[in-house]
Amino acid sequence: MEIKLIILSLALVLDRLVGDPPVLWQKIPHPVVLFGRAIGWGERRWNHSTSPDDKLHRSGMWLTIGLVTFCILLGLLIEALLPLLGTAGALVEIIIVAVLLAQKSLADHVHAVAQGLRKEGIEGGRRAVSMIVGRNPEQLDEGEVSRAAIESLAENASDGIVAPVFWFIIGGLPGLFAYKLINTADSMIGHLNDRYRHFGRFAARLDDVINYIPARLTGLLAVLAALFNISKESGRAAFSVMCADARLHRSPNAGWPESAFAGALGLALAGPRQYGEEKVAGPMLNAQGKRDAGADDIDAALALFWSSMSLLTGLMIAASLMRLIYRLV
């Protein structure tokens, strides 16, 4: 276990410093892109509008199960081969784990929204936020653009970092690969529209299950980060809002990190939103908070995010050292 924790700690540091170099992924496809291609191939092959609803549900379920099984077997194979490389095998595993984390890439995308607002006004903010959210940016004002970026940052802190870390600890590379496949499937086919309502239902439910613990851990990390790095009042507000409002969110998981960020930053997040032609109703998280957010609030959210990630990395390093000391003693 201590080796796994050391690998994870180094992968977190590597991802924070390097992220996903664009030059690399222009030459070879990112693993998540490969997951997406496999899901897209299966969806085109078996998701036909003329099929009965129950058949669509079964097809989507078996596609997801089949791809998850493949990911687990692939992870087991790689884990069996890496020790044969000695020290190089450990370095390869660190790189694999770092590639499947998203600290720097997420922060860079959210920072681009703040920069877009500052340099080009609302049009720059809308263009940048369209890269990270599914809602229609043309109908968003500056406050809505800023809050959308912060909501995405909070939610993806769980989906992109804490959950992969959690499932790597639980299941090693097989657990990490399986998680990324399920999360990618949910983002592609787990929508409640006419095309995916039945075919993607299993993937969406499975994603809810595997993110149950990580989402709550992410909320707690944000609370602690606010407590230690902003103020005691901010930490208390984050915890209070999270406990009161997390379950109001239409997602069973996203409300936990989002409400913690809302309380810590004094913002009102979530609420009604527009996805294409579909308007989704929803209550506000921390409804008494301010709604006219701007680039400075995005910066504050990024500071809270990095504090949370520092806390996570510190916990992993401390756990690895404790395991190592226990083993030596």
Automatic annotation (TrEMBL):
Q: Which GO terms describe its molecular function?
A: ABC-type vitamin B12 transporter activity; threonine-phosphate decarboxylase activity
Q: What is its main location?
A: membrane
What does the entry list under GO cellular component? plasma membrane
Q: So, what pathway does this thing act in? A: Cofactor biosynthesis; adenosylcobalamin biosynthesis
Gene Ontology annotations of biological process type: cobalamin biosynthetic process
Keywords, alphabetical: Cell membrane, Cobalamin biosynthesis, Membrane, Transmembrane, Transmembrane helix
TM region positions: 59-77, 84-102, 161-182, 209-230, 304-326
What is its subcellular localisation?
Cell membrane
What is its membrane topology? Multi-pass membrane protein
Q: What does it do?
A: Converts cobyric acid to cobinamide by the addition of aminopropanol on the F carboxylic group.
Family of this protein? Belongs to the CobD/CbiB family.
Which PANTHER family does the record associate with it? COBALAMIN BIOSYNTHESIS PROTEIN CBIB
Q: What is this protein called?
A: Cobalamin biosynthesis protein CobD
- Which species is this record about? Falsochrobactrum tianjinense
Q: Which gene encodes it?
A: cbiB
